[in-house]
Design goal:
The protein is α/β, with parallel strands linked by helices. The chain has 2 domains: about 180 residues, Up-down Bundle (Four Helix Bundle (Hemerythrin (Met), subunit A)); about 160 residues, Translation initiation factor eif-2b, domain 2 (Rossmann fold, 3-Layer(aba) Sandwich), CATH 3.40.50.10470. It contains 13 helices and 12 strands. The strands form 3 sheets. It has a 7-stranded mixed β-sheet with strand order 5-4-3-6-9-11-12, with helices on both faces. A 3-stranded antiparallel β-sheet has the order 7-8-10, covered by helices on one side. Strand 7 and strand 8 form a beta hairpin. Helix 5 runs parallel beside helix 7. It starts with a helix and ends with a helix.
Length: about 475
Amino acid sequence: MADSGGTDEHDKKDDVERSKSEGKELTKEEKQRLRKEKKQQKKHKEKKDDKASQESGKENKSASSAAAAPQLPTQTVKVVKRLPEHIQVDNPEVLKKLAKKLERQQTPVHGATIKIPLRSDYGYKVSLFSHLHQYSRKAPLTQQLSIPSTVIHPAVVRLGLQYSQGIVAGSNARSVALLHAFKQVIRDYTTPPNEELSRDLVNKLKPYISFLNQCRPLSASMGNAIKFVKKEISNIPTQCKEEEAKSKILNCIEWYINDKIILAAKAIAASAIEKISDEDVILVYGCSSLVNHILFEAFEKRRKFRVIVVDSRPRLEGREALRRLVQRGISCTYVLISAVSYILPEVSKVFLGAHALLANGYVMSRVGTSQIALVAKAFNVPVLVCCETYKFCERVQTDSFVSNELDDPDDLIVTRKGKTHLENWQEVPSLGLLNLVYDVTPPDFVDLVITELGMIPCTSVPVVLRVKNVDQ
Protein backbone atom coordinates (compact mmCIF):
# COMPACT_ATOMS: atom_id res chain seq x y z
CA MET A 1 0.00 0.00 0.00
CA ALA A 2 2.76 2.44 0.86
CA ASP A 3 4.63 1.66 -2.39
CA SER A 4 1.53 2.20 -4.57
CA GLY A 5 0.77 5.54 -2.83
CA GLY A 6 4.37 6.72 -3.37
CA THR A 7 4.25 5.86 -7.13
CA ASP A 8 0.92 7.71 -7.56
CA GLU A 9 2.34 10.91 -6.05
CA HIS A 10 5.44 10.61 -8.26
CA ASP A 11 3.26 10.22 -11.40
CA LYS A 12 1.23 13.30 -10.45
CA LYS A 13 4.41 15.36 -10.12
CA ASP A 14 5.55 14.19 -13.57
CA ASP A 15 2.19 15.19 -15.07
CA VAL A 16 2.47 18.70 -13.56
CA GLU A 17 6.00 19.12 -14.95
CA ARG A 18 4.83 17.95 -18.44
CA SER A 19 1.93 20.39 -18.49
CA LYS A 20 4.32 23.22 -17.53
CA SER A 21 6.78 22.31 -20.28
CA GLU A 22 3.99 22.04 -22.90
CA GLY A 23 2.55 25.43 -21.87
CA LYS A 24 -0.79 24.08 -20.73
CA GLU A 25 -2.76 25.77 -17.95
CA LEU A 26 -2.68 24.03 -14.56
CA THR A 27 -5.82 22.87 -12.88
CA LYS A 28 -6.81 23.96 -9.35
CA GLU A 29 -5.73 20.64 -7.86
CA GLU A 30 -2.29 20.91 -9.47
CA LYS A 31 -1.84 24.47 -8.17
CA GLN A 32 -2.73 23.38 -4.60
CA ARG A 33 -0.21 20.55 -4.84
CA LEU A 34 2.51 23.00 -5.89
CA ARG A 35 1.75 25.29 -2.94
CA LYS A 36 1.87 22.39 -0.48
CA GLU A 37 5.19 21.22 -1.88
CA LYS A 38 6.69 24.70 -1.58
CA LYS A 39 5.54 24.99 2.05
CA GLN A 40 7.01 21.59 2.90
CA GLN A 41 10.31 22.55 1.27
CA LYS A 42 10.44 25.79 3.33
CA LYS A 43 9.76 23.91 6.58
CA HIS A 44 12.43 21.37 5.73
CA LYS A 45 14.96 24.17 5.12
CA GLU A 46 14.05 25.92 8.40
CA LYS A 47 14.55 22.69 10.34
CA LYS A 48 17.96 22.21 8.75
CA ASP A 49 18.95 25.81 9.61
CA ASP A 50 17.84 25.35 13.25
CA LYS A 51 19.86 22.17 13.61
CA ALA A 52 22.90 23.83 12.10
CA SER A 53 22.60 26.83 14.45
CA GLN A 54 22.24 24.56 17.51
CA GLU A 55 25.30 22.55 16.54
CA SER A 56 27.32 25.73 15.98
CA GLY A 57 26.20 27.05 19.39
CA LYS A 58 27.34 23.87 21.08
CA GLU A 59 30.68 24.12 19.33
CA ASN A 60 31.05 27.75 20.47
CA LYS A 61 30.25 26.82 24.07
CA SER A 62 32.74 23.98 24.06
CA ALA A 63 35.33 26.28 22.50
CA SER A 64 34.69 29.00 25.09
CA SER A 65 34.86 26.52 27.98
CA ALA A 66 38.07 25.12 26.55
CA ALA A 67 39.44 28.64 26.28
CA ALA A 68 38.41 29.40 29.87
CA ALA A 69 40.08 26.24 31.15
CA PRO A 70 43.53 26.81 32.69
CA GLN A 71 45.51 25.17 29.90
CA LEU A 72 48.58 27.32 30.37
CA PRO A 73 50.30 27.78 33.75
CA THR A 74 50.42 31.55 33.22
CA GLN A 75 46.63 31.82 33.02
CA THR A 76 44.77 32.71 36.23
CA VAL A 77 41.17 31.80 36.95
CA LYS A 78 39.04 33.71 39.45
CA VAL A 79 37.84 31.39 42.21
CA VAL A 80 35.19 32.33 44.75
CA LYS A 81 36.64 32.02 48.23
CA ARG A 82 34.72 29.59 50.38
CA LEU A 83 35.94 31.30 53.57
CA PRO A 84 37.94 34.35 54.58
CA GLU A 85 41.65 33.65 54.61
CA HIS A 86 42.10 34.14 58.34
CA ILE A 87 39.94 31.09 59.12
CA GLN A 88 41.15 28.71 56.38
CA VAL A 89 43.46 26.83 58.72
CA ASP A 90 43.13 23.59 56.73
CA ASN A 91 44.65 25.28 53.66
CA PRO A 92 48.49 25.07 53.70
CA GLU A 93 48.80 27.99 51.25
CA VAL A 94 46.90 30.25 53.66
CA LEU A 95 49.17 29.17 56.52
CA LYS A 96 52.21 30.08 54.42
CA LYS A 97 50.71 33.52 53.76
CA LEU A 98 50.11 33.98 57.49
CA ALA A 99 53.70 32.99 58.29
CA LYS A 100 54.99 35.47 55.69
CA LYS A 101 52.77 38.17 57.15
CA LEU A 102 54.23 37.58 60.60
CA GLU A 103 57.74 37.70 59.13
CA ARG A 104 57.01 41.05 57.49
CA GLN A 105 55.96 42.43 60.87
CA GLN A 106 59.38 41.69 62.41
CA THR A 107 61.86 44.48 63.23
CA PRO A 108 65.63 44.36 63.69
CA VAL A 109 66.76 44.31 67.31
CA HIS A 110 70.51 44.44 68.04
CA GLY A 111 71.33 43.16 64.55
CA ALA A 112 68.95 40.18 64.82
CA THR A 113 65.43 39.75 63.50
CA ILE A 114 62.83 38.83 66.09
CA LYS A 115 59.58 37.61 64.57
CA ILE A 116 56.18 36.71 65.95
CA PRO A 117 55.93 32.89 66.12
CA LEU A 118 53.13 31.02 64.38
CA ARG A 119 51.06 29.12 66.91
CA SER A 120 50.41 25.49 66.00
CA ASP A 121 47.05 23.75 66.27
CA TYR A 122 46.36 21.18 68.97
CA GLY A 123 44.75 17.76 68.68
CA TYR A 124 42.50 16.17 66.09
CA LYS A 125 39.65 18.43 64.93
CA VAL A 126 36.14 17.54 63.85
CA SER A 127 35.94 17.67 60.04
CA LEU A 128 33.20 20.32 59.97
CA PHE A 129 35.46 22.69 61.92
CA SER A 130 38.84 21.76 60.45
CA HIS A 131 39.19 25.28 58.99
CA LEU A 132 39.27 26.87 62.47
CA HIS A 133 42.15 27.23 64.91
CA GLN A 134 42.26 24.96 67.97
CA TYR A 135 44.83 25.87 70.61
CA SER A 136 45.89 24.37 73.92
CA ARG A 137 46.32 26.39 77.10
CA LYS A 138 49.24 24.16 78.04
CA ALA A 139 51.28 25.63 75.17
CA PRO A 140 50.72 29.40 75.15
CA LEU A 141 52.35 31.57 72.50
CA THR A 142 54.48 33.34 75.11
CA GLN A 143 56.62 30.19 75.52
CA GLN A 144 58.12 30.84 72.08
CA LEU A 145 58.95 34.49 72.78
CA SER A 146 62.25 35.75 74.14
CA ILE A 147 60.80 38.45 76.37
CA PRO A 148 63.88 40.73 76.71
CA SER A 149 64.40 41.12 72.96
CA THR A 150 60.88 40.74 71.57
CA VAL A 151 59.19 43.50 69.60
CA ILE A 152 55.94 42.95 71.52
CA HIS A 153 55.22 45.43 74.31
CA PRO A 154 55.14 43.83 77.79
CA ALA A 155 51.58 45.05 78.36
CA VAL A 156 50.46 43.29 75.18
CA VAL A 157 52.35 40.10 76.12
CA ARG A 158 50.64 40.07 79.52
CA LEU A 159 47.24 40.69 77.92
CA GLY A 160 47.75 37.92 75.36
CA LEU A 161 48.64 35.46 78.12
CA GLN A 162 45.49 36.47 80.03
CA TYR A 163 43.40 35.96 76.89
CA SER A 164 44.83 32.51 76.15
CA GLN A 165 44.44 31.28 79.74
CA GLY A 166 40.87 32.57 80.05
CA ILE A 167 41.72 34.99 82.87
CA VAL A 168 40.18 37.89 80.93
CA ALA A 169 36.91 36.66 79.39
CA GLY A 170 33.78 38.33 78.10
CA SER A 171 33.39 40.79 75.23
CA ASN A 172 33.34 43.92 77.39
CA ALA A 173 36.22 42.84 79.63
CA ARG A 174 38.38 41.88 76.66
CA SER A 175 37.68 45.15 74.85
CA VAL A 176 38.40 47.31 77.90
CA ALA A 177 41.61 45.40 78.63
CA LEU A 178 42.70 45.82 74.99
CA LEU A 179 42.13 49.57 75.06
CA HIS A 180 44.02 49.93 78.35
CA ALA A 181 46.94 47.99 76.86
CA PHE A 182 46.91 50.31 73.84
CA LYS A 183 46.98 53.29 76.18
CA GLN A 184 50.12 51.91 77.82
CA VAL A 185 51.70 51.32 74.40
CA ILE A 186 50.95 54.88 73.31
CA ARG A 187 52.38 56.34 76.53
CA ASP A 188 55.67 54.47 75.98
CA TYR A 189 55.83 55.27 72.27
CA THR A 190 58.37 57.68 70.79
CA THR A 191 58.32 58.70 67.14
CA PRO A 192 61.47 57.59 65.26
CA PRO A 193 63.43 60.23 63.33
CA ASN A 194 62.15 61.06 59.83
CA GLU A 195 58.82 59.37 60.59
CA GLU A 196 55.25 60.61 61.14
CA LEU A 197 53.35 59.54 64.24
CA SER A 198 50.09 58.96 62.34
CA ARG A 199 51.77 56.38 60.08
CA ASP A 200 54.43 54.83 62.27
CA LEU A 201 52.17 54.23 65.28
CA VAL A 202 49.60 52.37 63.16
CA ASN A 203 52.37 50.12 61.80
CA LYS A 204 53.62 49.66 65.37
CA LEU A 205 50.23 48.27 66.43
CA LYS A 206 50.03 45.65 63.65
CA PRO A 207 52.37 43.04 65.24
CA TYR A 208 50.62 43.57 68.59
CA ILE A 209 47.23 42.84 67.01
CA SER A 210 48.62 39.77 65.21
CA PHE A 211 50.06 38.49 68.48
CA LEU A 212 46.75 38.94 70.34
CA ASN A 213 44.84 37.30 67.50
CA GLN A 214 47.04 34.21 67.81
CA CYS A 215 46.63 34.09 71.57
CA ARG A 216 42.86 34.09 71.04
CA PRO A 217 40.83 35.16 67.98
CA LEU A 218 39.65 38.75 68.23
CA SER A 219 35.99 39.36 69.01
CA ALA A 220 33.74 41.63 66.95
CA SER A 221 33.77 44.28 69.68
CA MET A 222 37.57 44.22 69.80
CA GLY A 223 37.69 44.62 66.02
CA ASN A 224 35.48 47.71 66.22
CA ALA A 225 37.64 49.15 69.00
CA ILE A 226 40.82 48.58 66.96
CA LYS A 227 39.24 50.32 63.95
CA PHE A 228 38.37 53.30 66.14
CA VAL A 229 41.90 53.60 67.54
CA LYS A 230 43.50 53.35 64.09
CA LYS A 231 41.12 55.96 62.71
CA GLU A 232 41.90 58.41 65.51
CA ILE A 233 45.65 57.89 65.04
CA SER A 234 45.36 58.48 61.28
CA ASN A 235 43.42 61.72 61.85
CA ILE A 236 46.29 63.29 63.82
CA PRO A 237 47.69 66.21 61.74
CA THR A 238 51.35 66.07 60.77
CA GLN A 239 52.17 69.44 62.34
CA CYS A 240 50.90 68.30 65.77
CA LYS A 241 53.58 67.76 68.43
CA GLU A 242 54.18 64.27 69.77
CA GLU A 243 53.04 64.84 73.36
CA GLU A 244 49.94 66.69 72.21
CA ALA A 245 49.10 63.97 69.70
CA LYS A 246 49.54 61.22 72.28
CA SER A 247 47.30 63.04 74.76
CA LYS A 248 44.61 63.41 72.08
CA ILE A 249 44.69 59.71 71.29
CA LEU A 250 44.59 58.77 74.98
CA ASN A 251 41.59 61.06 75.53
CA CYS A 252 39.80 59.50 72.55
CA ILE A 253 40.39 55.99 73.93
CA GLU A 254 39.13 57.04 77.36
CA TRP A 255 36.06 58.59 75.74
CA TYR A 256 35.39 55.36 73.84
CA ILE A 257 35.53 53.27 77.03
CA ASN A 258 33.32 55.69 78.93
CA ASP A 259 30.76 56.40 76.20
CA LYS A 260 30.48 53.09 74.32
CA ILE A 261 30.74 50.70 77.28
CA ILE A 262 30.14 52.29 80.69
CA LEU A 263 27.49 54.90 79.84
CA ALA A 264 25.92 52.54 77.31
CA ALA A 265 25.45 49.92 80.05
CA LYS A 266 23.72 52.49 82.26
CA ALA A 267 21.39 53.55 79.44
CA ILE A 268 20.54 49.93 78.63
CA ALA A 269 19.85 49.22 82.31
CA ALA A 270 17.49 52.20 82.51
CA SER A 271 15.51 50.89 79.53
CA ALA A 272 15.56 47.25 80.62
CA ILE A 273 14.26 48.01 84.12
CA GLU A 274 10.99 49.12 82.53
CA LYS A 275 10.50 45.54 81.32
CA ILE A 276 10.97 44.05 84.81
CA SER A 277 7.85 43.88 86.96
CA ASP A 278 7.23 42.69 90.48
CA GLU A 279 7.01 38.92 90.97
CA ASP A 280 8.83 38.30 87.69
CA VAL A 281 10.90 35.17 87.19
CA ILE A 282 13.86 36.09 84.99
CA LEU A 283 16.04 33.50 83.28
CA VAL A 284 19.66 34.35 82.46
CA TYR A 285 22.35 32.25 80.80
CA GLY A 286 26.04 32.26 81.62
CA CYS A 287 27.69 35.34 83.07
CA SER A 288 26.97 38.47 81.06
CA SER A 289 28.36 41.59 82.73
CA LEU A 290 25.63 43.72 81.12
CA VAL A 291 22.77 41.45 82.24
CA ASN A 292 24.21 41.33 85.76
CA HIS A 293 24.38 45.14 85.81
CA ILE A 294 20.71 45.33 84.76
CA LEU A 295 19.64 42.96 87.54
CA PHE A 296 21.67 44.91 90.11
CA GLU A 297 20.03 48.18 89.06
CA ALA A 298 16.55 46.65 89.13
CA PHE A 299 17.16 45.23 92.62
CA GLU A 300 18.30 48.64 93.85
CA LYS A 301 15.07 50.13 92.45
CA ARG A 302 13.15 47.83 94.82
CA ARG A 303 11.83 45.54 92.09
CA LYS A 304 10.80 42.17 93.50
CA PHE A 305 11.88 39.38 91.19
CA ARG A 306 13.58 36.00 91.16
CA VAL A 307 16.42 34.88 88.89
CA ILE A 308 17.06 31.46 87.38
CA VAL A 309 20.70 31.07 86.34
CA VAL A 310 21.21 28.51 83.56
CA ASP A 311 24.71 27.14 83.15
CA SER A 312 26.55 24.69 80.89
CA ARG A 313 29.80 22.80 80.80
CA PRO A 314 32.71 23.12 80.37
CA ARG A 315 33.09 26.79 81.37
CA LEU A 316 30.37 26.91 84.04
CA GLU A 317 30.34 30.71 83.88
CA GLY A 318 26.94 30.78 85.53
CA ARG A 319 28.57 30.03 88.89
CA GLU A 320 30.27 33.43 88.82
CA ALA A 321 26.96 35.11 87.94
CA LEU A 322 25.25 33.18 90.74
CA ARG A 323 27.91 34.26 93.23
CA ARG A 324 27.54 37.95 92.31
CA LEU A 325 23.74 37.89 92.42
CA VAL A 326 23.60 36.08 95.76
CA GLN A 327 26.08 38.58 97.25
CA ARG A 328 23.61 41.35 96.42
CA GLY A 329 20.79 39.44 98.11
CA ILE A 330 18.88 38.47 94.96
CA SER A 331 16.89 35.22 95.14
CA CYS A 332 18.36 32.74 92.65
CA THR A 333 17.95 29.22 91.31
CA TYR A 334 20.77 27.38 89.57
CA VAL A 335 20.13 24.77 86.84
CA LEU A 336 22.05 23.25 83.96
CA ILE A 337 21.02 23.79 80.35
CA SER A 338 19.77 20.21 80.06
CA ALA A 339 16.93 21.09 82.48
CA VAL A 340 15.89 24.36 80.83
CA SER A 341 12.72 22.87 79.30
CA TYR A 342 11.51 21.82 82.76
CA ILE A 343 12.10 25.22 84.35
CA LEU A 344 10.74 27.45 81.55
CA PRO A 345 7.00 27.08 82.37
CA GLU A 346 7.54 29.25 85.47
CA VAL A 347 9.72 31.83 83.65
CA SER A 348 8.20 35.18 82.67
CA LYS A 349 11.15 36.74 80.77
CA VAL A 350 14.52 35.67 79.35
CA PHE A 351 17.43 38.14 79.45
CA LEU A 352 20.44 37.25 77.31
CA GLY A 353 23.75 38.91 76.60
CA ALA A 354 25.40 39.03 73.18
CA HIS A 355 28.89 38.61 71.80
CA ALA A 356 27.91 40.43 68.60
CA LEU A 357 24.85 41.43 66.58
CA LEU A 358 25.29 40.63 62.90
CA ALA A 359 24.01 42.66 59.97
CA ASN A 360 21.33 40.09 59.07
CA GLY A 361 19.84 40.28 62.57
CA TYR A 362 21.38 37.08 63.95
CA VAL A 363 22.66 37.18 67.52
CA MET A 364 26.11 35.70 68.12
CA SER A 365 26.55 34.67 71.73
CA ARG A 366 27.85 31.96 74.04
CA VAL A 367 27.16 28.45 72.75
CA GLY A 368 23.79 27.27 74.07
CA THR A 369 22.08 30.64 73.69
CA SER A 370 20.19 29.57 70.57
CA GLN A 371 18.87 26.47 72.36
CA ILE A 372 17.51 28.57 75.20
CA ALA A 373 15.91 31.03 72.76
CA LEU A 374 14.36 28.14 70.82
CA VAL A 375 12.82 26.55 73.92
CA ALA A 376 11.62 29.96 75.16
CA LYS A 377 9.92 30.52 71.80
CA ALA A 378 8.17 27.16 72.15
CA PHE A 379 6.85 28.20 75.59
CA ASN A 380 5.89 31.73 74.38
CA VAL A 381 8.32 33.37 76.80
CA PRO A 382 9.69 36.74 75.57
CA VAL A 383 13.42 36.78 74.83
CA LEU A 384 15.20 40.12 75.40
CA VAL A 385 18.79 40.52 74.18
CA CYS A 386 20.87 43.26 75.82
CA CYS A 387 23.70 44.53 73.63
CA GLU A 388 25.73 47.73 73.17
CA THR A 389 25.89 49.18 69.67
CA TYR A 390 29.68 48.95 69.56
CA LYS A 391 29.17 45.18 69.26
CA PHE A 392 27.15 45.59 66.07
CA CYS A 393 29.02 43.96 63.21
CA GLU A 394 28.68 44.25 59.43
CA ARG A 395 29.40 40.55 59.02
CA VAL A 396 26.59 38.25 57.86
CA GLN A 397 26.31 34.73 59.23
CA THR A 398 23.50 32.17 59.34
CA ASP A 399 25.24 29.19 60.95
CA SER A 400 27.89 28.35 63.52
CA PHE A 401 30.14 26.37 61.20
CA VAL A 402 31.78 28.93 58.89
CA SER A 403 33.00 31.41 61.47
CA ASN A 404 33.38 30.39 65.08
CA GLU A 405 35.99 29.78 67.76
CA LEU A 406 37.28 26.48 69.11
CA ASP A 407 38.40 26.43 72.72
CA ASP A 408 40.84 24.03 74.36
CA PRO A 409 39.41 20.50 73.93
CA ASP A 410 41.01 19.40 77.20
CA ASP A 411 38.36 21.46 79.01
CA LEU A 412 35.80 18.79 78.12
CA ILE A 413 37.63 16.18 80.17
CA VAL A 414 36.04 15.84 83.60
CA THR A 415 38.80 16.00 86.20
CA ARG A 416 37.91 13.79 89.13
CA LYS A 417 39.85 11.54 91.43
CA GLY A 418 41.38 8.69 89.52
CA LYS A 419 41.82 8.22 85.79
CA THR A 420 39.33 9.38 83.17
CA HIS A 421 38.52 7.58 79.93
CA LEU A 422 39.56 10.63 77.86
CA GLU A 423 42.85 11.22 79.65
CA ASN A 424 45.05 10.34 76.63
CA TRP A 425 42.59 11.18 73.88
CA GLN A 426 45.33 12.74 71.71
CA GLU A 427 46.82 9.28 71.14
CA VAL A 428 43.64 8.11 69.39
CA PRO A 429 43.95 9.42 65.81
CA SER A 430 40.25 9.09 65.00
CA LEU A 431 38.98 10.85 68.14
CA GLY A 432 38.23 14.57 68.12
CA LEU A 433 36.81 16.69 70.96
CA LEU A 434 34.69 19.67 69.92
CA ASN A 435 34.59 22.63 72.31
CA LEU A 436 32.65 25.36 70.53
CA VAL A 437 32.59 28.86 71.97
CA TYR A 438 29.75 30.64 70.13
CA ASP A 439 26.52 29.98 68.28
CA VAL A 440 24.12 32.19 66.33
CA THR A 441 20.46 32.75 67.17
CA PRO A 442 17.99 33.59 64.36
CA PRO A 443 16.04 36.86 64.73
CA ASP A 444 12.79 34.86 64.78
CA PHE A 445 13.63 33.70 68.31
CA VAL A 446 14.42 37.19 69.66
CA ASP A 447 11.55 39.51 70.58
CA LEU A 448 13.55 42.65 71.37
CA VAL A 449 17.08 44.04 71.45
CA ILE A 450 17.78 46.61 74.17
CA THR A 451 20.56 49.07 73.26
CA GLU A 452 21.67 52.49 74.47
CA LEU A 453 19.74 53.93 71.51
CA GLY A 454 16.52 52.32 72.70
CA MET A 455 14.57 49.12 72.11
CA ILE A 456 14.82 47.90 68.54
CA PRO A 457 14.11 44.69 66.62
CA CYS A 458 16.95 42.59 65.27
CA THR A 459 16.15 43.72 61.74
CA SER A 460 17.17 47.30 62.59
CA VAL A 461 20.87 46.43 62.91
CA PRO A 462 21.71 47.61 59.34
CA VAL A 463 20.04 50.96 60.07
CA VAL A 464 22.16 51.48 63.19
CA LEU A 465 25.32 50.54 61.28
CA ARG A 466 24.42 53.01 58.51
CA VAL A 467 23.86 55.83 60.99
CA LYS A 468 27.17 55.04 62.74
CA ASN A 469 29.05 55.16 59.43
CA VAL A 470 27.49 58.53 58.59
CA ASP A 471 28.41 59.96 62.00
CA GLN A 472 31.99 58.79 61.66
